[in-house]
Design a protein that fits this description.
The protein is mainly β and 403 residues long. It has helices spanning 76-82, 128-134, 145-149, 215-220, 286-289, 344-347, 364-367, 369-375, and strands at residues 39-42, 44-46, 49-56, 59-65, 72-75, 89-92, 100-112, 115-125, 140-142, 151-155, 160-164, 176-179, 184-190, 197-203, 211-213, 231-237, 240-248, 251-254, 257-260, 263-267, 282-284, 292-297, 302-307, 322-327, 333-339, 355-359, 362-363, 381-388, 391-398. The strands form four sheets. The chain has a nine-stranded mixed β-sheet. It has an eight-stranded mixed β-sheet with strand order 2-3-4-9-5-8-7-6.
Amino acid sequence: MRKSLKRLSKACFVAVIVFAIPAFAQSQASTPAAPEPVATLHFDLYNNRVYLPVEVEGHSFHMILDSGAAIAGVSQATAQILHLPAKGKAEIRGNGESLLPITLTKGVTFRLGAAEIAEDKVAIMPFQDLEAREGRPVEGVLSVNVFRRYVVVTDYANRTLALYQPATFVYHGAGKVVALHLSLFSGEVTIPGHDPLPVILSVDYGTYSALRLYRGFVQKHHLLEGLSPGIDSFGFGIGGEFPERLGRAASLQIGGVTINGPVTSFSTAKGGVTASSQGADGTIGGGILSRFKVVLDYSRDQMILEPEANLAEPFPADASGLILQAGGPGLKNIAIRHVLTGTPAEAAGLHEGDIIVSVNDRDASELGLEAIRVLFYHPEVFRLTLKRGQETLVMQMTGRQLY
């Protein structure tokens, strides 16, 4: 495994994803005495992302926790509420293919219960496109500095997150210890039709996907050759959309834990973070992390994974071929953004721009984008009421497993 790491000759730092040369030796969990956490917070798990309650200058928000974000960000609406002054402009690169223009402000302290994260620079970001794809307001993003300042213990099963002082933290448990530095670790991935491959991955709390492999790694190992079943699709992140092919890895091994059949994004992007393999070959996101209790301890260069009861369950995947977006007041209008080729949605005659009024006679605006996304994980027959221009249409779509 160590031979595969010689190509990491230097650290690679980008605006949204942080990479560094990892120490890959197996480390051991510390022993005795468990201190009290500085803060314990309940969070929303939405589209596989952790939304934490955050207080800034007496105002309450819900913000995405993102270990891959090098800089914290707030939405333009949040910045207006807080009267944050502009202190410069910049561009940042994320998973999307485009650079995102941002405004900078300075000196913002984010309070997570009794814990504080003082950020010297904060991005004021246009989150409207991200909100449309999420289907809920995005008030801000917490950066990697949360993980640099505290040991972060995320209990996905109970939707709680605890922050500990690194100097006094002691781990008690039987979790698997994975050596890392910042967000990088080594593993082994097996793609159907290919031999097992050593892989260098980043832990990315801000990514909704399970396993994402970057274009450089995909091309180097010819992973799209013979990948079946699979479907051409679009991922989304800071900087907008990027093309990808969705399929499944046969397995992913991390620190002695085997994860079978994770849904896998094989990036085909020509721009953005996913377009190359500088520093890492890909990421694991919330789709995998949410199957564990996760301890991220940057101070000891380790991640500890305690499998949850759902680890062995099949990974859900879209059975419709629809990529949806939300808009209008309260993000209640659910529209079709893309109809993927060769899918049930295409066979049913659905069009980009159609507004979904109801699904199986349930009002789409009341269901919301996330609930409809989850419904479409099931290979069932769906009765859809649509608005197409001035017409109201009733159509039937028969979902099926796509990959």
